[in-house]
Amino acid sequence: MAFKIIASQCTACGACEFECPSAAIRFKGETYIIDPKKCTECEGAFDVQQCANVCPVPNTCVKAA
Amino acid sequence: MNQPLMISLDSLAQPIDFAALEAAAKSGGCASSSCGSSAKPDDMDADVWERIKDHPCYSEEAHHYFARMHVAVAPACNIQCHYCNRKYDCANESRPGVVSEKLTPDQARRKVIAVANEVPQLSVLGIAGPGDACYDWNKTRATFDEISKDIPDIKLCISTNGLALPDHVDELAAMNVDHVTITINMVDPEIGAKIYPWIFYQHRRWHGVEAARILHERQMLGLEMLTARGILTKINSVMIPGVNDEHLIEVNRWVKARGAFLHNVMPLISDPAHGTHYGLTGQRGPTAMELKALQDRLEGGAKLMRHCRQCRADAVGLLGEDRGQEFTLDQLPEAVAYDPAKRAAYREVVARERGDHVAAKQSAVAAVKDSAQEGGTLLVAVATKGGGRVNEHFGHAREFQVYEASAKGIVFVGHRKVDNYCMGGFGEDATLDGVIAALEGIAVVLCAKIGDCPQDMLTAAGITATDRYALDYIETAIGALYAATFGRAIEQAVA
Q: Where in this chain does the record put each Radical SAM core domain (chain B) (predicted)?
């Protein structure tokens, strides 16, 4: 149960990093990555996933399969 | 009054013999504070003038002398605009399709100091995209905190969409940020819904009219809060034909009523290659003459900015130039120390040159006003590289500054960007056609030098081009030209 960022589409704007209530997102190399162990999909914190809703590029911050 | 300068402003931008410069700057015998001349417009209070006189974006007059730089330190954004595709870059606050280097606050500090040591015209540091300076607030604050320690006299400036602005107005005031630009494209949420597909606010996405209403309310609140604290505001509006062009008259009224200092109506930049919604759906931008017509209708409302170059988010230099490529990250030293000497010397030179320029300008403007006849309007394009003079070769110009001479005097009304015609000595006909198209509506081009061939081609297109006024102050040249064109003997008055 986690979200992930499609690296090739990420603009590295960093909005997801500071919206994440679980500190699960960090910058690595040229893109932001989500730590699946820390990601809670915002359950208990917000009604919608913050990273996916703030991300400016469609289909870039998505549910991990 | 109008002798050539002892030190050209241009030479100051190059590596210089500083001792010689300082000696020359001090040899004039007239300190700026005591010689009695000031570039202050008659209708502005002294306090406001003091705050904008070195800010190239807030004062048309200052933009001939002073430079700004933008640092891209705050890339996160909280809204989506139809003219922006974040995959490339922010289209309207930076030249589209060109990705800027994003900087950390520490990298920004090194870059600003490196620029301040090399570009004596530097007076303003702005954070203007990509992203929103108020939304990505921690990085904005860290950057300003660092740099104002090193360069206390640099003016700090931000640009924002306004959504997060009310949350940070008090901190902006505490940090001495004296200039804030808000992009306001509508005051009617129905129109806003055609410009903004969504916003991110209070931990969720909002769409359509509801989103636009929230944005509108936050923009107005932020503007009112800034005005209440005496912070100068500039309102940027993107003119989108068929969407908000007529509506910007209403926007102008609203922002004027809330104390906006300047209103800057900019043309939509739209191209399918940029991948923006407007680019992909064929929404066009306005022509230069459509933009001017709207700006002319807005005269009398909130004061208009007409000299905006829609610069990149990492632009460096005078508004019409971009020296950003000289200061990319890989060229910056690890350790930098600020040396205030060059900027201080430049300010002294400019203070004197400016007084002289203003006197020349006033007499030329007065002469044109006195002699203007019914219908006697002249649109003049000027090739200049700064200092308020006709001092650029036609073939080297990347833009022309456009002035209108009429019963209102001589007024700066805009600029036209062109691909420079002369590349390494070879003029290209294809480029010249582009230049001629960009000069639509212009009667006369003034430049420091022009070849016979381009001059003939311009003549064939109905545009007079001349280097007769080379190195003159722009207004002096236009005054003389106006007299010659409309046949009244005012040349003596402006000489």
A: 63-312
